[in-house]
Specification:
ATP-binding; single chain; 383 residues; Rossmann fold; Rhodanese-like_dom_sf; Molybdopterin-synthase adenylyltransferase MoeB; Oxidized Rhodanese, domain 1; transferase; elongated; nucleotide-binding; 8-stranded mixed beta sheet; alpha/beta
């Protein structure tokens, strides 16, 4: 890639060039730089847009999801016209229009221990725009093993955080901050807990700023500092981070020298909870049974604010899954019971809990209210 700037590039990036901190030298560094964005969702959208606009010469986009209508509330690189399209294709289409002068490489795959090092190796900076713990640990570990800075961000509901993990530059890694993942199910996902649509814009733009600073060598990066953002209170806080000398990855005597099975490390269960046929029921089967005189007891284990969005007619009781253990006395173990949630995952956990408490006449609604809407009643809203 040429290190000089064309007249077209000078016109495009002129507001950078007249800043002495950036200038021609800094813009050439951006043109020579390469960044891998892991995820093109809420965080990846503003990241991709601003890094593309800034003139980063080579951007890699990694994602294996497709654009869904529910994404558009926050994933601004996508649009209504690209619903159903692979996210990397949707993003590349928008980014090529924003700046056709840069190179974009797409990876339509899930990143895992078998391909992470190969995919990440060609890039100068790795940016973590993921929303799950296995991929965060994987991204962190691979970045440290390759000596790459990892620009980290995470969001949930109204809160976000960002930092730069780079032991090579004297800072900590993700494992220094979070040595162990939380127990499975303790931290709800954005799909379960929601996220304010503009929040990833704030955090993603901060990540993009840090990436530009790393590539150009200007300013003071968020190295050894964790920035916390509270959107409701409109407050920023900063916590000092130190490298842990006993960290198994970046400490003085590291024991992690290769990538591991991160799903197993985080104790993640498959998204499809299989309880056995005797404890499962399809929406079409439930619809037929509900027409009978002796109908089963319908238990909804979602949160009350989800019930306001949509529910199955005739639901007998709502007990959020995290309250279920304390409210078993409200249920009759002698009655046939069908448990449901949004997708069947939380209700699967609820059925396991009920089984352990001695309930036997119960079944999990496969696919939850989403599949109920698809297979039985399209008037039930999907979210």
């Amino acid at each position: 890639m040429a290190t000089t700037l064309s007249n077209e590039e000078i016109r495009r990036y002129s507001r950078h060039l007249i800043m002495p901190e950036v200038g021609m030298s800094g813009q050439r560094k951006l043109k020579q730089g390469s960044v891998l964005l892991i995820g093109t969702g809420g965080l990846g959208s503003p990241l991709a847009l601003y890094l593309t606009a800034a003139g980063v010469g080579h951007i890699g986009l990694l994602d294996f999801d497709v654009v869904d209508e529910s994404n558009l509330q926050r994933q601004i690189v996508h649009g209504t016209a690209t619903v159903g399209m692979p996210k990397i294709a949707s993003a590349k289409q928008r980014l090529n229009d924003l700046n056709p002068l840069i190179e974009i490489t797409t990876y339509d795959t899930a990143i895992d221990s078998s391909n992470a090092l190969e995919i990440m190796r060609p890039y100068d900076v790795i940016v973590d725009g993921t929303d799950n713990f296995p991929t965060r640990y994987l991204t962190n570990d691979a970045s440290v093993l390759l000596g790459k800075p990892n620009v980290y961000g995470s969001i949930f509901r109204f809160e976000g955080q960002a930092t730069v993990f780079s032991p090579k530059h004297g800072g900590p890694c993700y494992r220094c901050l979070y040595p162990e993942p939380p127990p499975p199910g303790l931290v709800p996902s954005c799909a379960e807990g929601g996220v304010l649509g503009v929040l990833p814009g704030v955090i993603g733009t901060i990540q993009a700023t840090e990436t530009i600073k790393l590539l150009t060598g200007i300013g003071e990066p968020l190295l050894g500092r964790l920035m916390l953002y509270d959107a409701l209170g409109m407050r920023f806080r900063e916590l000092k981070l130190r490298r842990n000398p006993e960290c198994p990855l970046c400490g003085e005597q590291p024991t992690i020298r290769e990538l591991i099975d991160y799903q197993q490390f985080c104790g993640i269960l498959p998204e499809v909870v299989s309880l056995g046929a005797q404890y499962e029921i399809l929406p079409s089967e439930l619809a037929s049974i509900l027409q009978r005189d002796e109908r089963p007891f319908l238990l909804d284990v979602r949160n009350p604010y989800e019930v306001e969005i949509a529910s199955i007619a005739g639901t007998d009781k709502v007990i959020p899954v995290d309250q279920l253990a304390e409210r078993l006395h409200e249920l009759d173990s002698a009655r046939d019971m069908v448990v449901y949630c949004r997708s069947g995952v939380r209700s699967g956990r609820a059925v396991e809990l009920l089984k352990g408490a001695g309930f036997r006449k119960l079944r999990n609604l496969v696919g939850g209210i989403l599949r109920w809407s698809d297979d039985v009643d399209a008037t039930v809203a999907k979210y």
